[in-house]
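Q: Is it fine to ask for two folds in a single conversation?
A: Yes, each is treated on its own. Send the first.
Q: Here.
A: Result:
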Amino acid sequence: MSQARLPEGDWIRGISVKQPYTTCILTGAKQVENRSQPWKPGWVLLHASKTLDQHALRLPLVGRTIRGRQLVTGAVLGVARITDCHQDADQSAPCSEWAHPEAWHLVLSDVQELPLPVPARGQVVPWKPSPDLLQRVFQQLPDFQP
């Protein structure tokens, strides 16, 4: 895919997620990502942080989801679209088994995994990917339509 076919301007951000949660998102099982602050809806590059969440590796929900998959870190592994950002009402049932109380829940859809990881540095906050990084990512997704 040529860079010219992608929209111009500030249409996509990067989101860095610790493993094994990045892989849980890529499997389609984890459709809610927890954050301390709200995020705007839109497209994001799914970046696996260099840090592994060791505690999460012992959770049965995570173990069942990632079974047999490699946990790549320090790379963009896919793209997704944030369709909603909300907090659950006080004392209400969580919106997902992945949702943490009092966190902002980013609802993810249209998740597309890359065939090959693209090494990249991420950040805790929403980050703007470089044109070179976008080109390397979208070369692997020739049918991508934002």
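Q: Second one now.
A: Result:
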Amino acid sequence: MELIRILIADDHTLLRDALAELLDAEDDFDVVAVAGNAAETVRLAAELRPHVLLLDIEMPGNQDPATTVRHLRRAAPETHVMVLTMHDDPGLVQALLPLGIRGFLHKTVSHQSLAGTVRDVCAGGSRVTISLSARSLAAPAPADNAPLSVRETQVMELAASGLSNYRIARRLDIAEGTVKRHMRNIFDKLDAGSRVEAANKAVERGLIAPPVTAPRGGVRDTRRLPDVVLRGAHGLPEAALR
């Protein structure tokens, strides 16, 4: 029986190595390599042509998940790309599905479920496995006339109150890179060149309420704000769970 050859791409060394060890212990799996950044992932995928690539979309050099997936699909078209991430954004799933990913799995998925999904993907067929948290799936869809998604609105409200990307990430229990991606989308949608301009335009259009703590001139300085750190599952910081 041919072994299922797997490439793991994740910049968190401890998690990546632990996952590689777990999967390599399966009789029908062979973890052929690991990668820690987007460029290395594309290079190894093209060189090794693994059956499956488990891809964390928040890595150094990966500014745009869709672009990275496109590069991977061109470099290794036979490889099944499965996203394994702490991102919990249905909108991101919708953006990546047309690009040919075969799975979008939250990192809270069990080892058994992950292994089973890898086997299902390699068994053929066109089924795509999606695993998101119940909280994400239950979130209301944005209104049709709203230019910002629900998550983008949350990010914009916190940015308008003066929070940095780091503090927004901790407040919403998401990765800082996710906040940066949302801010880029907000800038594009509002045709803004800065956080202050985006905040002012969002207020003018009625997308967010005027921040109570902000002065009339715009967003206030955030250096005096308390640092709020939320905890994820098992009491660990969110950064340790990505």
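Q: Anything structural to flag on that second result?
A: Two points. Strands lie at 4-9, 29-35, 52-55, 80-85, 103-106, 129-131. The first helix runs from residue 13 to 24.
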